[in-house]
Amino acid sequence: MPRLAVLGHPVGHSRSPAMHNAALAELGLAGEWSYEAIDVSPADFERRVRAMEGEGFAGANVTVPHKGAALALADTLSETAREIGAANTLSFSAGEISADNTDAEGLLAALPGGSPRGLKALVLGAGGAARAVVWALLREAADVAVWNRTELRSQHLCEELGGEPVSAPDPAAYGLIVNSTSVGLAGEDPFEQLPLRRDGFAPGQVVVDMVYGDEPSPLLDAAAAAGAATVDGIEVLVRQGALSLREWTGREAPLEAMRAAARR
Ligand code: NAP
Prior knowledge:
Layout: E1 3-8, H1 16-26, E2 34-39, H2 45-52, E3 57-62, H3 67-73, E4 76-77, H4 79-84, E5 89-93, E6 96-100, H5 103-110, E7 120-124, H6 128-139, E8 143-147, H7 151-161, E9 164-165, E10 176-179, H8 190-193, E11 206-209, H9 218-225, E12 229-232, H10 233-249, H11 255-263
Parallel strand pairs: 1-2, 1-3, 4-6, 7-8, 7-10, 8-9, 10-11, 11-12
Antiparallel strand pairs: 3-5, 5-6
Bound molecules: NADP nicotinamide-adenine-dinucleotide phosphate.
C-alpha cells in the first residue's frame, strides 16, 4: 500500500491531506494509497526523507521551509525544479529520489483564459512562491514586472530568472496581478503593505492571491467588486496538488473532489 505525505514545519494547518485523500477516494484508490502530514524540522529533513522509501512512501509534497533542501538532496531534478531552485514534489523509486516543482504549472493551470502569453503581469513578492510564479509567466512569454518590499531581493530574482524589477508600479497598467507575498496570512491589510489600491482594479484584469486562509481575501474581494477575474490560493493549491498526484499515481486527478475537500 503506497504512502504519500506532505512534509513541512509546521504542517498541521495543511489542507493537502484532506485534498489528496478525497482525490484518492474519488479515484477508487483509497484502499491502496494514503496521504498524511508529517512535521519535520529542518535539522531532521534529510534523514527523514531518505528513510521514506523504506517505510513504503512513493512520494511526498514539500512545503515551507523545506523546498530548497528537497532540491538539494534529490538524485534527479526536473528542469522546472532546477531552474526555479526549489522542489515541492518528491518521488521515491528503486533507491532514487527525484524532485519536481508543480507550483509553476499549477499557477498556469489555475489562470482563467489559458496562457498569459503577451500579458503585462505584475508579481508581488520575491520569495519561494514568487520564484515559481515568475518562472511560469516568463516561460509563457508574459511581460513580467516584479515588486518586492525588500527591493534588493526582487533585483536578484530578476537577474536570475528574468523579468523587470519595479519599485512603484501602477497596478492599472497590468492585465495580471499576482500576490505571492505572505501579506494577508496573518490578517495584514494588503492595501497598506502592497502597492495596490482598494479602488484600483478594473474589468479585464485577472488578480491572483496565493495566500489562503479561513477568511476571504480582502484583495480578491476588492478585485471582484471591480469586475476583475479572481483566482484564490486554494485553486492554485488544488492545481499543484493535482499535478503531483498524477506524477505519483499516473491518474488524472479529480479536481472537483479536491476543491471541495480543500475548501472545507
Ligand atoms: P517567503 O519565501 O517567506 O516570502 C515571503 C514574501 O512576502 C517576501 O517577498 C516578503 O518580502 C513578503 N512579505 C512578507 N511580509 C510582508 C509585508 N508585511 N509587506 C510586504 N511584503 C511582505 O514565502 P513564500 O514561500 O514565497 O510564500 C508566500 C505566500 O504564498 C505564503 O502565504 C504561502 O502560504 C503562499 N503560497 C501559496 C501556495 C499555493 O499553492 N496557494 C504555494 C506557495 C506559497 P521581503 O523580501 O521584503 O521580506
